[in-house]
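Minutes, project huddle
Topic: does the predicted pose make sense with beta-D-glucopyranose bound?
PN asked that the exact inputs be recorded in the minutes so nobody has to dig through chat later. Recorded below.
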Amino acid sequence: MKKILLLASFLITCLFMNAQGNDIKAQVDKLISQLTLEEKVSLCSGRDDWSTQPIERLDIPWIWLSDGPHGIRRAPATNKAGYGDQLPAICFPTASALSATWDVDLIYKVGQTLGEECQALDVNVLLGPGVNIKRSVLGGRNFEYFSEDPILSGELGAAYINGVQSQGVGTSLKHFAANNVETERMYMNSNVDMRTLHEIYLTPFEIAVKKAQPWTVMACYNRVQGVYGTQNPYLLTKVLKEDWGFEGIVISDWFAVIDRVEALKAGMHIEMPRVSGVNDDILLQGLKDELVDEAVLDNLVREILMVVLKAKSLEKEGVELKADEHHAFARKVASEAITLLKNDNEVLPITRKKYKKIALIGEFAASPRYQGNGSSEVKPTQLDNVLDVIKKEYGKGIDISYTQGYKLNDDNDFSLIEEAVKAASAADIAIVFAGLPLHYESEGIDRTHIDMPASHNKLIDEVSKVQNNTVVALTNGSAVAMPWVNDVAAILETWLGGQAGAGAVADVMFGTVNPSGKLAETFPVKLSDTPAAFNFPGEQGDVLYGERIFVGYRYYDEKQIEPLFPFGHGLSYTKFEYSDIKVSEEEITDKDDLQVTITVKNIGSVAGKETVQIYVSDKESTLQRPVKELKKFAKVELVPGEEKEITFNLEKRDFSYYDAKREMWIAESGDFMISAAASSQDIRQTAALILNSTQEIPLLVDEYTFVKALWDNEETREILKEFIPNWIGGWVYGEDKTLDDAQIPGFFLEHPLIKFPYITHDEMSHQDVKEIIERCKGITYIPELKQTVNVENVSFE
Ligand code: BGC
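Predicted holo structure (tokens), as shared on screen:
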């Protein structure tokens, strides 16, 4: 009954939205005919820092755009920058923490909460989420991005957008695309090959657009293959609109437009913020000079008005900021993100039975670092610190000491270490709060190393010498090196946990919450182990994506490099057993879906949550492929002894690679391996699969196609036989043999078509070469695999 009611209310909402959509469309059509050229041009840039251009004469309203992403950074007025004087709002953990939850439902609720706060703060479009890939561990905005993996980034991005937009507030999916470096960010060229661009860097945007239709997409500062993101017709029109069906508008990143006319032609709707009237004048002149057609402008303005009027129509009056309720929810979110990296001898959780005296060490315990530096900085409604929370909520009956350990902004003051060591040796357990101070990671600047301050490392070293139960609680937005990893008993990655993160840390430490976070990025032992080590941040305005598709765990797998902690890793206070992997079919075609089922059981003594990861390995492939790739994941909650069966649905795309020459995704026939895993390096169960592809692939023939390819294909062989019968006949031995039996030496077959006039002594002319190419157009084939990428020696156990 409940389901029926829900369905009915969903249908009524759809009908209502549709009717409303039609109304707005009619309104927009009318407005377009009433707007002057100048007015239309003016709508294509912001009114000021945070609002769109209104046209009072026609009652066209303006809407408020605001950062984003993990809270609302709302300036006091639309023409104020809003750094320091922004309105208080909930500050959630940043994206690198949100992604460690691996929980799409939770991220949807985070989005919902943000949407609600936008309504309370009169914001119409929230500038987030950022779904760019963490290509290098040094990326200055890694704290603001989800993951090194495209599927995880895309799914979480889609959940966030759906959550925000469920509240009648839009989002801005950013920064489109291949925005992976902060150094020279306004100019840097992301020199990335097409296959990698699609498989790694565009996929998260594609998932988010297809599953959530963000109202806006934010075009990036950087260039992609030499063309600025704001004036890139391939990205903004071909890929975003035509291929993915994006229905919203593109706004520029702030001050990202270079050539206003080219930007309009490429499909960029609104330049943000307002940059004086210069660009409007340039655009107006460009239209008058017919550098761009007015119809192009009309289409973009129509789409802008659709978003503006929709946003206005969905505004809610009288929404109040539920500061306390949202703070409590932010604590829950942060606790789901905390990732237990190591826990020797079950040193955690802290119980009164085990420990009577606790030494809390480190300035971060008193002055938390809870968010990143730059445009995403939120003014929190309140801010907790671990020291106070522990004393207040968990301190009863426990002797708690606190020592500062180090000073923020001072890497060389070791005088506080002695005091901390004394406290640690007098206690039963020492918790060191360490990590990256604010100035270590920031928008606009990349890191140059992955080290924590020397004072933090030294503190951990010295404390661990006197205290066997040393726990390190890390605060950082991206991976750090841990030279002391083997000297401490436990490591808790607490990320940048937002305004309520301190409570979450306490909850996990004292076992009120069983940790369930898992890494959404690989933690390397050292910088030189990382995929982009040779090609970051780039030089002379160009960054070569030399590692290609081998980003994150794909690289560590391929190079067989042991990371410090692998992608997907995270421990719990309980243990989970995986069993009974099943695939719905052992053999499928590319047209079939495949169901993979796995049973997970809690075999420990406390309730907990496990994230099951499904990886696909293509064992045979024409193109080089990663050892394995994440395709699905799910988080399940289990009480002790409980088991659940989880089913995942895999489809063609999950088996495909992107063929850059043919500009298409191809699922090739062959053997695949499906793995159910607790991390990228903890494969628990595997199942084999055979894919019999029926996908017809266009045969690409040009002057440089090797004749071998034409000889091997039945259809093109006939064409060759027609053009060079005598030459082929020269390789036929035996009376009763035909041209098909010709034993043409491999040496000749390994020549491109353009050489054949010489090889056949002009039996094939240069004109024939052109004709053959023409005749081959439209011929397709279903490839048989000949080349095998060897993954046999990669252990899945
Ligand atoms: C950032 C965006 C942000 C915008 C507005 C830019 O510098 O790259 O992420 O939304 O500023 O603050």
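Observations noted during the meeting:
- Residues 386 and 392 are 10 Å apart (CA to CA).
- Residues 67-68, 127, 174, 253-254, 375 surround beta-D-glucopyranose (CB under 6 Å).
No decisions taken; revisit at the next huddle.
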